[in-house]
């Protein structure tokens, strides 16, 4: 799994942070830091955090390795 946060869109509401605290952290009052490649065990938490974002700044993607595996299976 890979996540991308559009920091230009993020307004620092931090509603996502308590839902995935090991992946998303608020640094200072408004600066969001995050792990772009969290462990798959965090998937449900990350999806909930992304859904909670009022400006939809969090994008969750499949990891490149997962995509490569699916392409090889064709």
Give short descriptive properties of this protein.
single chain, 74 residues, alpha+beta, two-stranded antiparallel ribbon, 22% strand, Ferredoxin
Task: Describe the protein's architecture and organization.
The chain is an alpha+beta fold and 74 residues long. The chain has a single domain, classed as Alpha-Beta Plaits (2-Layer Sandwich). The protein has 2 helices and 4 strands; from the N terminus they run βββαβα. Strands 1-4 form a two-stranded antiparallel sheet. The chain has a two-stranded antiparallel ribbon with strand order 2-3. A hairpin with a 3-residue loop joins strand 2 and strand 3. The longest helix is centred in the middle third of the chain and has 10 residues. The relative contact order is 0.29. About 7% of the residues have low confidence. Pfam families: Fer4_13. It comes from Mycobacterium spongiae. This is Ferredoxin.
Helix content: 25-40%
Largest sheet: 2 strands, antiparallel
Q: H/E order of the elements?
A: EEEHEH
Q: Report the portion of residues in β strands.
A: 15-25%
Report, as a whole number of angstroms, the end-to-end distance.
21 Å
Q: What is the name of the CATH class?
A: Alpha Beta
Count the helices. How many?
A: 2
Number of self-contained structural domains = 1
Q: What fold name goes in the CATH topology slot?
A: Alpha-Beta Plaits
Which class do the helix and strand fractions yield? Answer: alpha+beta
**CATH architectural type:** 2-Layer Sandwich
Q: How would you write the strand order of the largest sheet?
A: 1-4
The 3D shape can be described as: globular
Mean pLDDT: 86
Uncertain spans: 67-71
| Global Rg | 13 Å
Number of strands: 4
């Amino acid at each position: 799994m890979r996540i991308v946060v559009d920091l230009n869109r993020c307004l620092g509401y931090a509603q996502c942070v308590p839902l995935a605290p090991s992946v998303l952290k608020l640094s200072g009052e408004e600066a969001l830091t995050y792990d772009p490649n969290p462990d798959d065990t965090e998937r449900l938490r990350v999806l909930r955090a992304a859904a909670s974002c009022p400006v939809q700044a969090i994008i969750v993607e499949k990891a490149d390795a997962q995509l490569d595996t699916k392409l090889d299976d064709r």
